[in-house]
């Protein structure tokens, strides 16, 4: 248990509740003689809760027999608050029956002492109860500090991890897109689609950060193929297709939701609704929805962007071609949502436009 120093104990806030003024004055003098200075006297029990809520107390000395609200009532009010650090209650009363003592202790009192009381005994019990309460408070505060430190450290690790995976996505994109703006457009478009398809906010946030790694496997494709200005040969195209599985292999083996979704997207975003995609030739809803979403966002941005092997398409030409691919390349349901969101998608395109050459 944490050690309580004398100064801390002497500054402890003690509430004394008794309807008799003389008893309050006597208790105040006793506590002052013992070295305590932060003493609050309450004669009207109806003022107790307001005084208690105004500032935390470290100990409560409580009379039982009071008009209107008894000490039992005040103990019950305190218990109902369910405070994590309810102060100990030392009951002071002339009632000496066993039933009274048991009722007070069962209600939540920490100790019981009868009137008239021995001053030395009261001082000793006050000291002991304060030591225990202040030690609990110190331990509680240390726990809060530790929890904040753990939370902050976890947040820093999470942010660092996120930055690493974002840079991985950009590293792959720089292989065939100098600005890296494609992944920003594609990831924000994918997230917009996910929102309108009913994904919750947390999963949409993961989509925003996972989708930039969709083409991570490109780092394993030779430049002679990746940057080739003309059409690929059948052999080169087979090699190019392996970037999906390369990306899946790189992103595999981690249990975080972020990397699991990133791997799913890397493997599925080149699958086609009619089964003519790769690497597994999945059809329809067997293709993970994340892959079907990213497929649309990725293809639209690729068509309307300059690549080493082609010029940028006009937006209307790209949309017309994509409409024709609904039910073939693309999920018809997601295609319909995509078309409804074209104005917002074009705003994303403008927001993350490639800088002029």
From TrEMBL:
Q: Which residues carry this modification: 4-aspartylphosphate?
A: 63
What's a BP term from Gene Ontology annotated to this protein?
Answer: phosphorelay signal transduction system
Q: Which UniProt keywords apply?
A: Phosphoprotein
* Top-level taxon of origin: Bacteria
Q: Where is the HD-GYP domain?
A: 157-354
What InterPro entries does the record point to? CheY-like_superfamily (IPR011006), Cyclic_di-GMP/3'3'-cGAMP_PDE (IPR052020), HD/PDEase_dom (IPR003607), HD_GYP_dom (IPR037522), Sig_transdc_resp-reg_receiver (IPR001789)
Name of the protein in its database record: Response regulator
């Amino acid at each position: 248990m944490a050690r309580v120093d004398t100064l801390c104990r002497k500054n402890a806030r003690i509430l004394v509740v008794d309807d008799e003024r003389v008893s309050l004055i006597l208790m105040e003098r006793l506590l002052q003689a013992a070295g305590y200075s932060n003493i609050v006297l309450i004669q009207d029990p109806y003022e107790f809760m307001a005084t208690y809520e105004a500032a935390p107390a470290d100990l409560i000395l409580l009379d039982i027999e009071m008009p209107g609200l008894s000490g039992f009532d005040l103990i019950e009010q305190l218990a109902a608050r369910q405070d994590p650090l309810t102060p100990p209650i030392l009951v002071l009363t002339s009632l000496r029956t066993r039933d009274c003592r048991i009722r007070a202790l069962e209600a939540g009192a920490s100790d019981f002492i009868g009137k008239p009381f021995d001053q030395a005994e009261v001082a000793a019990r006050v000291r002991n109860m304060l030591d225990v309460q202040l030690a609990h408070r110190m331990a509680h505060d240390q726990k809060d500090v530790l929890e904040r430190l753990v939370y902050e450290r976890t947040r820093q690790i999470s942010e660092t991890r996120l930055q690493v995976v974002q840079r991985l996505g950009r590293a792959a994109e720089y292989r065939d897109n100098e600005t890296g703006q494609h992944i920003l457009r594609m990831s924000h478009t994918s997230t917009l689609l996910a929102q309108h398809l009913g994904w919750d906010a947390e999963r949409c946030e993961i989509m925003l950060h996972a989708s930039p790694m969709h083409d991570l496997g490109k780092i394993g494709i030779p430049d002679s193929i990746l940057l080739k200005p003309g059409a690929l040969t059948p052999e080169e195209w087979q090699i190019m297709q392996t970037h999906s599985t390369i990306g899946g292999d790189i992103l595999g083996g981690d249990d975080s939701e972020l990397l699991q979704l990133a791997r799913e997207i890397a493997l599925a975003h080149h699958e086609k609704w009619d089964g003519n995609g790769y690497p597994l030739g999945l059809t329809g809803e067997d293709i993970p929805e994340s892959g079907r979403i990213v497929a649309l966002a990725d293809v639209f941005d690729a068509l309307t962007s300059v690549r080493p092997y082609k010029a940028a398409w006009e937006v209307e030409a790209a949309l017309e071609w994509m409409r024709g691919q609904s039910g073939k390349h693309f999920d018809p349901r997601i295609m319909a949502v995509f078309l409804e969101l074209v104005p917002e998608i074009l705003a994303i395109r403008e927001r993350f436009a490639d800088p002029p050459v």
